Q: What sequence folds into this?
């Protein structure tokens, strides 16, 4: 279990992440949603160990993150940041193979091959990473982080992704989330920051809504996705529409209610 | 068993390295036998084999003396310094995540030079403690190089990566400072200190003698060897410091190790043969352009190619103005500077 208890982080006395508590279980996909500047990325960095929290604690499988060495941490969790820049001519396959650094795989080349097939990157393997399109780069990065935690271990592993679908078209967005879904069976817990509410509604098991560094609501998808809460968090009226085909919900921006215009004038 | 993809890749990398080793052997052989005093190849080989007790031909005593006392230490020194500059250039470029980094450009060499000069002036030439000079000078130069590389690293780093413009400017500033301080120190120097500085600042391998080889071997070869164990970490760092940390690399520790090893290699090299520019810049680039960026090949390849290039440059320096010698720094800069201009031009083009 990945557990964050009351993690707190502030810059110049201003809390960016304030006393956030959440639990991520293996075999679960949790989506973190929230408006820009809600503290999602900072919270993400606290969980990945990139920055240390002022107080509160993050623990992977019961081990405090501060006591884990970077190598031990890398065996338990993999992280896919939003953008990574390469200044040297590495091929796509070489980038994927970087994921092997801290995993003692007996069949590294099979592992890389399998993951590249799943992420649909096999045909890119000999191309230079810097010559790939934005979407291709993201899939190669996904392959890299999957390699790191792909092989079964006696303990559960976790995957943290910061907007993995930001430069993908609709087919590839669903492709990526289906890959994430398939990780559930591998004893992996997935925590993913998303901007697209409908993707979260369709694929996540749990949703955490963040606003101003505080958890506005956390729970199962059906509990969190309510018009009032979403409208409050995103400062925009939101409508939930029943999807007649799948039986799920569709989230749409509702028309601005006229009332909001006079309140602006009053202010 | 069907060979897997990464196996064939490792094999081809090994073949490339073997090829470099072979070329290095040829250049060394040429360098040993050519020069103001020619020793034909058969005699060169005969002398070398004679040293390990195998007699394959006849030679004159004079030939043996020139080869063993003058040429062999010189070739060894060129190999250590050239290879050291190549591999530390590759390591520093990987650490700074910036292809424009070069030991001379970012001030490691000038820092080493400054401290070497301070040492030469402070410790009188006629000092009885010869061993203090033999070990103290390289170590002093190492400290100077380390201070400069740390200063440039922290000056040019913003948000986990080094900005090229700031990096070059920081290097220029640090180099200018070092140059003026060297001038200041020399102002207070006595005649004998000035003379040893002049010899050394010409940047040639003429001063390479057997007495310097043990120190060079330990202080250059050992950190070079240590650098070779950082290939995976450097590959991970290429993606970014945070990414490397996510992948399980202890970034702070690796950074410290790379900085110390590189400063040691360059600093000791500078203290032995003076400032030799552009080898550390050109060599890693050639390897990357020809064979890709995997540090498993780039690091050892840079050592071998650096050794080849410096031996070759030394050979030219000895041959073009027989019986005199051209300072080797002149040759490397003559080839390196145009390459550097070409590199800047291409970097700008790829960005637009």
A:
């Amino acid at each position: 279990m990945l557990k964050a208890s009351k993690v707190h982080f502030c810059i110049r006395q201003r809390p960016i992440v304030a006393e956030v508590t959440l639990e991520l279980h293996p075999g679960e996909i949790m989506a973190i949603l929230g408006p820009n500047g809600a503290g999602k990325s900072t919270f993400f960095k606290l969980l990945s160990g990139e920055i240390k929290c002022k107080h509160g604690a993050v623990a992977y499988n019961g081990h405090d993150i501060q006591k884990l060495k970077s190598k031990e941490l890398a065996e338990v969790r993999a992280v896919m940041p939003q953008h990574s820049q390469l200044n040297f001519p590495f091929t796509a396959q070489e980038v994927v193979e970087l994921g092997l650094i801290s995993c003692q795989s007996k069949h590294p080349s099979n592992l890389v091959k399998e993951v590249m097939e799943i992420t649909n990157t096999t045909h890119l393997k000999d191309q230079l990473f810097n010559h790939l399109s934005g979407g291709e780069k993201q899939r190669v990065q996904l392959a890299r982080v999957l390699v790191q935690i792909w092989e079964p271990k006696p303990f559960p592993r976790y995957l943290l992704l910061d907007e993995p679908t930001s430069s993908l078209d609709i087919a590839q967005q669903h492709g990526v989330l289906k890959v994430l879904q398939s990780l559930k069976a591998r004893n992996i817990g997935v925590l993913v920051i998303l901007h697209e509410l409908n993707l979260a509604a369709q694929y996540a098991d749990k949703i955490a809504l963040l606003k101003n560094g505080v958890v506005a609501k956390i729970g199962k998808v059906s509990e969190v996705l309510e018009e009032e809460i979403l409208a409050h968090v995103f400062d925009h009226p939101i409508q939930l529409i029943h999807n007649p085909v799948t039986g799920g919900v569709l989230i749409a921006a509702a028309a601005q209610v006229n009332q909001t215009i006079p309140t602006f004038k009053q202010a | 068993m069907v060979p897997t993809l990464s196996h064939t890749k490792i094999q081809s990398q090994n073949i490339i390295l073997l090829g470099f080793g072979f070329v290095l052997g040829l250049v060394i052989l040429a360098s040993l036998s050519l020069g103001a005093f020619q020793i034909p190849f058969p005699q060169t080989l005969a002398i070398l084999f004679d040293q390990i007790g195998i007699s394959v031909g006849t030679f004159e005593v004079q030939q043996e003396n020139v080869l063993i006392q003058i040429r062999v230490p010189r070739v060894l020194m060129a190999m250590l310094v050239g290879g050291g500059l190549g591999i530390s250039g590759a390591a520093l470029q990987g650490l700074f995540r910036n292809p424009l980094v070069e030991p001379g450009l970012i001030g490691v060499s000038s820092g080493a030079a400054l401290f070497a000069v301070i040492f030469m002036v402070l410790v009188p030439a006629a000092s009885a403690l010869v061993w203090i000079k033999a070990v103290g000078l390289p170590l002093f130069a190492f400290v100077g190089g380390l201070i400069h590389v740390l200063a440039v690293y922290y000056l040019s780093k913003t948000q986990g990566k080094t900005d090229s413009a700031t990096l070059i400017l920081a290097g220029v500033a640090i180099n200018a400072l070092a140059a003026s301080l060297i001038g200041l120190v020399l102002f207070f120097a006595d005649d004998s200190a000035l003379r040893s500085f002049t010899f050394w600042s010409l940047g040639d391998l003429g001063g390479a003698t057997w007495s310097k080889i043990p120190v060079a071997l330990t202080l250059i070869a050992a950190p070079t060897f240590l650098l070779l164990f950082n290939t995976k970490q450097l590959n991970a760092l290429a993606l970014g410091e945070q990414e490397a940390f996510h992948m399980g690399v202890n970034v702070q520790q690796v950074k410290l190790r790379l900085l110390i090893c590189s400063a040691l290699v360059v600093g000791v090299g500078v203290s032995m043969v003076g400032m030799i520019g552009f080898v550390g810049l050109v060599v890693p680039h050639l390897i990357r352009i020809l064979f890709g960026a995997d540090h498993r090949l780039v690091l050892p390849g840079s050592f071998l190619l650096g050794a080849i290039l410096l031996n070759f440059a030394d050979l030219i320096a000895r041959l073009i103005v027989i019986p005199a010698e051209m300072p080797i720094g002149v040759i490397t800069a003559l080839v390196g500077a145009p390459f550097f201009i070409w590199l800047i031009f291409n970097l700008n083009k790829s960005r637009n």
User: Anything to note?
Assistant: Residues 49 and 55 of chain B are 6 Å apart (CA to CA). Residues 1-5 of chain B have pLDDT under 50 and may be disordered.
